[in-house]
Write a structure and sequence with these properties.
This protein has about 450 residues and is mainly β. It folds into 3 domains: about 35-105, Immunoglobulin-like, CATH 2.60.40.2700; about 115-195, Sandwich (Immunoglobulin-like); about 205-455, Jelly Rolls (Sandwich), CATH 2.60.120.200. Helix content is about 5%, strand content about 45%. Strands 19, 22, 23, 29, 34, 35, 36 and 38 form an 8-stranded antiparallel beta sheet that branches. The protein has a 7-stranded antiparallel beta sheet with strand order 20-27-37-30-31-32-33. Strands 3, 4, 6, 7 and 8 form a 5-stranded antiparallel beta sheet that branches. A hairpin with a 6-residue loop joins strand 16 and strand 17 (about 185-190). The radius of gyration is 35 Å and the shape is elongated.
């Protein structure tokens, strides 16, 4: 058994061993933190090592580099560059405990960014991204931001926070920070990239018209209002602004025994009406709207529709801004859920019309291999505050984002269903055609993750 004295000596030797062993480990741990440089004055030439960032290393050794070459004698914690060295690269290397670490490579006379900006999600919802500006010198430098999605700058996104748009989901975004200080060159640095999570869309149906009234009935008068005539007395003007050939009357839209709403267009009886082209009308049809009865703002709007047959037919399910009496088209906005043209029986068109796009619109079309005539298809939009998406039979085929003043879709809209004939978009009417129809099986409205509103008047 060792004596009490030998036991104490052994404990002392062990402690000395552990202390000597820990010294280089501590040095390595501390120097793993990247050394930081800062300006000592406003000249843009005087530098010093940020000793606080060194973690209290004992007996650190310094070496300054200009243009990648060690500067002879520049072995102190401070360094004064010459005027001729301005705009050249500078870097600091610190050695302690046999371990070395280097600072960022900066430019003499330019704002130094020791730690680049960092972007993080504010919370798990992904509704906000925030940026931490990092560490820089001089400390009075001002920081400005521009957010990017991939190589594309995000218009107007210049704050230190960013609320991702629907279109950002599933993409990587980052921020470019510009550091500016009087007397120093600006420095631009990119942050890390961050993945914007995809938010699953949850739909809750809150309104519908299933057209289940008795056979032969007109559309539900608590929802629908006929819009009659050739457009001459309407804001759109003669031919409904499109040189259409029909005159709308209410009686050509009726509920069928199958529980659908059928709109007929016919030449029979059209001559009883006089149209804007100073002659008996060529066609009569029906058009119904929800204006002043039911309005909608955001949400999913969908309808199950069978399209018309024959070149020159122009069936549509669409929306106009409810403020059209105060703000004429296109200021009020137009959302076309679908337009079905007899001249292109294998295409569905989904478009927006706003201040910039005007009559040309912004949108796309989707090919329908079996066409829209022989069977029903479901046409839908997801209308969100910053994006509108188009779907055919549940498959996404088009999208438009809120980018500029063309976006006039942040207010109440009303629904429209009609069957037009001819016109600028419908095209020439097929020779010998004297009858056409389109049918609506149902129209439904759902909220999207709680977003969406039905406005009843």
């Amino acid at each position: 058994m060792p004596t009490k004295q030998s036991t104490g000596l052994l404990a002392f030797l062990v402690s000395i061993f552990f202390l000597s062993a820990l010294a280089p480990i501590s040095a390595q741990a501390d120097i793993a933190m990247q050394p930081q440089m800062s300006y000592s004055d406003t000249s843009g030439l005087s530098f010093s090592a940020d000793t606080k960032a060194l973690g209290g290393l004992q007996s650190p050794k310094f070496q300054w580099f200009v243009n990648g070459k060690a500067v002879a004698g520049a072995t102190k914690s401070s360094f004064k560059a010459t005027t001729k060295q301005k705009n050249q690269s500078i870097q600091l290397k610190v050695t302690a405990g046999g371990v070395s670490a280097s600072s960022v490579i900066a430019k003499i006379g330019q704002v130094i960014v020791n730690i680049k900006p960092t972007v993080t999600l504010a919370d798990a919802s992904g509704n906000k991204v925030v940026v931490t500006p990092g560490s820089f010198s001089p400390k009075n430098a001002k920081v400005s931001y521009q957010w990017y999605k991939g190589p594309i700058d995000i218009a107007g996104a210049k704050s230190n926070t960013y609320s991702p748009a629907t279109a950002d989901q599933g993409f990587k975004i980052y921020v470019n920070a510009k550091y500016s200080a009087k007397g120093f060159l600006d420095n631009k640095v990119d942050s890390n990239e961050i993945d914007i999570p995809v938010v699953k869309r949850n739909y809750v149906q809150v309104w519908q018209d299933e057209f289940n009234l008795s056979s032969g009935s007109a559309p539900d008068s608590s929802i629908w209002l006929p819009e009659n005539g050739d457009g001459t007395k309407a804001a759109a003007g003669a031919g409904w602004g499109n040189k259409e050939r029909q005159y709308y009357i209410p009686t050509l839209a009726k509920i069928t025994s199958e529980g659908a709403l059928k709109i007929d267009a016919t030449t029979t009886g059209a001559g009883e009406y006089t149209c804007y082209y100073k002659a008996p009308c060529e066609w009569i049809s029906s058009k119904y709207i929800t204006k002043g009865k039911v309005g909608f703002k955001y949400g999913r709007i969908e309808a199950r529709i069978k399209g018309p047959v024959g070149a020159g037919t122009w069936g549509a399910f669409w929306m106009l801004g409810a403020d059209i009496d105060d703000r004429r088209w296109p200021w009020c906005g137009e959302i076309d859920v679908t337009e079905l043209l007899g001249k292109t029986p294998n295409l569905s068109y989904g478009y927006l019309h706003g201040l910039i796009s005007d009559a040309a619109g912004r949108g796309t079309s989707v090919d329908m291999p079996k066409g829209f005539v022989d069977e029903y298809h479901t046409y839908a939009i997801d209308w969100l505050p910053d994006q509108i998406d188009w779907y055919l039979d549940g498959v996404l085929y088009g999208s438009q984002q809120k980018l500029d003043k063309d976006w006039v879709f942040d207010h109440e809209f009303y629904l429209i269903m009609n069957l037009a004939m001819g016109g600028n978009f419908g095209g020439p009417i097929e020779s010998g055609l004297n009858q056409a129809s389109m049918s609506f099986d149902w129209i439904r409205f759902s909220t999207i993750n709680g977003v969406g509103e039905v406005i009843k008047h």
